[in-house]
Amino acid sequence: MSLISVGTMAFDAIETPFGKTDQIIGGSATYVAYAASNFVQPIKQVSIVGFDFPKEEMDELTKRGVELDGVEVVADKKSFFWSGRYHMDMNTRDTLVTDLNVLLDFDPVLPESYQGAEFLMLGNLDPVIQKKVITQLKTRPKLIVMDTMNFWMEIAMPQLEETLKLVDVLMVNDSEARQLSAQFSLVKAAKEIMKMGPKYLIIKKGEHGALLFHGDQVFFAPALPLEAVFDPTGAGDTFAGGFMGHIARTRDISFENMKTAIIVGSAMASFCVEKFGPERLKEITQADIDERIQQFVSLVNFDIELTH
Amino acid sequence: MSLISVGTMAFDAIETPFGKTDQIIGGSATYVAYAASNFVQPIKQVSIVGFDFPKEEMDELTKRGVELDGVEVVADKKSFFWSGRYHMDMNTRDTLVTDLNVLLDFDPVLPESYQGAEFLMLGNLDPVIQKKVITQLKTRPKLIVMDTMNFWMEIAMPQLEETLKLVDVLMVNDSEARQLSAQFSLVKAAKEIMKMGPKYLIIKKGEHGALLFHGDQVFFAPALPLEAVFDPTGAGDTFAGGFMGHIARTRDISFENMKTAIIVGSAMASFCVEKFGPERLKEITQADIDERIQQFVSLVNFDIELTH
User: One GO CC annotation, please (chains A, B) (predicted)?
Assistant: First the structure.
């Protein structure tokens, strides 16, 4: 039940209406690892960092069953750095700084020990790099899940279309789904996107939950109503990590099991937003996760009998 | 299992990105009646119309078990008229015309035959009028549900607060909940509003579903993902009608049954938006409703086992 996770390991500096951090640990693959490692180990990490990425953070990941053979350390460059400021509604943010640093050199070579992995999570990256990872695998994984963003739709659409043909599940947010499909209705958008390659589409709507589409089937998972969203950074990646972790643990790629995986992902994301960065994800126990998942059951569970 | 429904019966003229109507039938009590009458009859209607309100519409309502003894007909005035234009996202609209007409004289006197009703639905109206209806009832209904809007928060907040003390369930949309409570978080907003009187709060979020709060409990019902929302006019009132209809049919005011009622309300609202005005609500059969409710079951139903 091995999982390869490809993405960034980085530093973030975050401002929200509730507070402000100095440089803290971030990056899509970091969040995926902290979420997924609750469900499946090892996680075969593929990323790139600079000389400044802390050894304690690497040790912490190793302790959680994250293999770092696929993480390149560049001795003379700094790690990727992103800084942003969230608005009051927490659904929109301004990017203040993007220092690509080592990311400019990212051209991952999969270690031989990563071959044969059954599950592949492609974090948001240049679609050319995402494709390179897929084509390096001698045996196609049982399930390939991919995240992307509007940036690649704007500057690398032909490359994105090539990569989309190779994946099973695409995860995007609602505005990205609209942009990718040129459809306003998310139902119509899903139909268009599923013609581009992915047989499954997950549309993340932040505080408004997530939708899973497959053929004519649709499933909806709410976000947990929270008193305060402290910092949404990484929530989407944490969702992906919980989703992939559950799928890899159960090795069941049916639509039914993907529904459960979305609930697991939503539960993990609900922890992520409670503190800055991945801080909260480092604290939680299996009991916390089980309790949170039960809250989702209560949140949507209802009895129905026919109504007349 | 009698239900009193108080609200407007009116004319609307609607523009959406998909089309435009001339004057068609509208009004909160009209939508409530078309939705609720699928589940419970009679519905004891309280409203006011002008000389121009069509006899065929009255006959149609009568046929569906709507009692009109409480509907005042003013011989020398026109019915309430509202005209609006929806934006592309269908969540926002501009009011083009509001002709209050007979609504200026609305001072309902409950017919003696309405006494003893077990359920009361107060559509969005001046809170003073809502209170007058409550105080005319010699026996307090088992459940009083009230809708309101931001307009009354702005011009009649003390009166609104008085009426809120007398009701069991308040239904508002998300921006109204924020305005009423001065809280941005809907969880915090719910706590504040439940201190003002209502023991239950339903927050309608349009295409993003609806939340039910009661004490520390919370339930979420999604909206059905639709290819096209043709006209959202009346969706909130139709939701209220489905909710009240289910409650009045089952005579069960438990939190558990309110969850089911919210699903019924959401199903009815999903029909409402498919055509202009109440047109679609007039067409649907019990079989259509059952099928739609099953779609909601599929939409949110998932299997969970503990995740490790």
Answer: cytosol
Distance CA A8, CA A29 (A): 5
> Closest partner residue to B220 among A39, A289, A299, by Cβ?
A299
Q: Cα A182 to chain center, whole Å?
A: 23
How many separate domains does chain A show? 1
In the block, which residue shows the tokens 């994946």? A167
Is the per-residue pLDDT at B110 higher than 90? yes
A307 with B299: Cβ contact below 8 A: no
pLDDT for the residue numbered B93: 87
For residues A130 and A161, the answer to whether their CB atoms sit within 8 Å is: no
Residue type, A84: G
Q: Which residues pair with A16 in a beta bridge?
A: A19
Please indicate, yes or no, if residue B307 is contained in any of the structural domains: no
Domain annotation covers residue A308:
no
A297 contact residues in B (CB cutoff 8 A): 304
- Return the number of other C-beta atoms located less than 10 Å from residue A201's C-beta: 25
Closest CA in chain A for residue B308: A39
Report CA-CA distances (Å) from A229 to A19, A69, A119.
12, 35, 31
Decide: residue A276, CB within 10 A, 0-12 exposed, 13-18 middle, 19+ buried: buried
CA nearest to A39, candidates A65, A59, A60: A65
SS3 of residue A198 by DSSP: coil
Query: Which chain B positions have a beta carbon within 8 Å of A188's beta carbon?
Result: 227-228
Please indicate, yes or no, if residue B20 is contained in any of the structural domains: yes
Residues of A in contact with B287 (CB under 8 A): none
Q: Does B204 touch chain A (CB under 8 A)?
A: no
Mean pLDDT of the region B194-210 = 96
| CA B302 from centroid of its chain's CA atoms | 30
| CA-to-CA separations, A166 to A107, A110, A111, B248, in angstroms, rounded | 19, 18, 21, 53
| Burial class of residue B188, CB neighbours in 10 A (0-12, 13-18, 19+) | middle
Is B271 within 8 Å of B292 (Cβ atoms)? yes
The alpha carbon dihedral of B136, B138, B140, B141 has a sign of: negative
* Tens-digit pLDDT profile for residues A220-249: 999 999 988 889 999 999 999 999 999 999
Per-residue confidence at A1, pLDDT binned at 50, 70, 90? low
Amino acid A87: pLDDT: 87
Distances (CA, A) of A303 to B45, B110, B252: 30, 35, 13
Report the distance separating Cα B96 and Cα B103, nearest Å.
18
Tell me the CATH number at A290.
Answer: 3.40.1190.20
State how far Cα B48 lies from the chain centre.
Answer: 17
Please return the burial class of B123, using the count of CB atoms within 10 Å of its CB with bins 0-12, 13-18 and 19+.
buried
- Whether A233 is in a domain gets the answer yes
Contact, B9 vs B29, CB < 8 A? yes
Q: Between these two residues, B214 and B207, which has the higher pLDDT value?
A: B214
Q: What's the one-letter identity of residue A272?
A: C
Q: Which domain holds residue B207?
A: 3-300
Separation of alpha carbons B178 and B176, rounded Å: 5
Question: Which of B190, B51, B183, B171 is CA-nearest to residue B123?
Answer: B171
SS3 percent helix, strand, coil of chain B, rounded to 5, is: 40, 25, 35
pLDDT at res. A91: 75
